[in-house]
C-alpha cells in the first residue's frame, strides 16, 4: 500500500512539475519579492533635493501631500523638461490649475474652483497613482512647523483627502 502511494505521489509530481530535465532546479525556487524603498515623511527642504536637476538622483513630486517617484517620466520631469518646475515640491495647486506659474506651485488649494478640484482628483488618480510609486508624504500634512506631531491632524478632515488614496 505504501509503495502504491509513493508511486502515485511521484506520478502527481511528474504531471505537475514535468520531467526533471525540462525544468532546471533554479526555476523551481521561489523568487523573493523585489525590495521597495520605505515610505517616509519629507520636509520641504528634503523634497527640494529631488528636483530632477542632478543626474542619477531620483525625481519626486508631491500632489495632495503624497510624494511620488516620477523618475521613470524623466523626459517630462527631468532637467530642462516641460514639467520640471513641478518637481521637488508639493505642486498640488499647479496640478489642479494646470499651471506652471511659480505662484501656483504650492500645496495650498484655498479658493480653487470645483472644476479645478475635479481636475486635481482625476490627475491624482489617473496619472500619479496609476503610473508612479508612492515614496512618502509631505511633513506639513502631519507635523507642526517645529516638527512636533500635530494633535489636530485628522486625515478625514483634510480637504479632498480620501484614505483610499493612500493605499
Q: Uncertain spans, ≥5 residues at pLDDT below 50?
A: none
Beta-strand percent range: 5-15%
Mean pLDDT: 80
- Looking at how many chains there are and whether they match, the oligomeric state comes to single chain
Structural class: alpha+beta
* Main pleated sheet: 4 strands, mixed
Number of strands: 4
* Share of helix, binned: 25-40%
Described by the principal axes of the CA atoms, the overall outline is globular
- N- and C-termini, Cα separation: 53 Å
Number of helices: 6
Order of helices and strands: HHEHEEHHHE
Task: Return Rg in Å.
Answer: 24 Å
How are the strands ordered across the major sheet?
1-4-3-2
Account of the protein in words:
The chain is of the alpha+beta class. It is built from six helices and four strands. A four-stranded mixed sheet has the order 1-4-3-2. The longest helix has 18 residues, at 114-131.
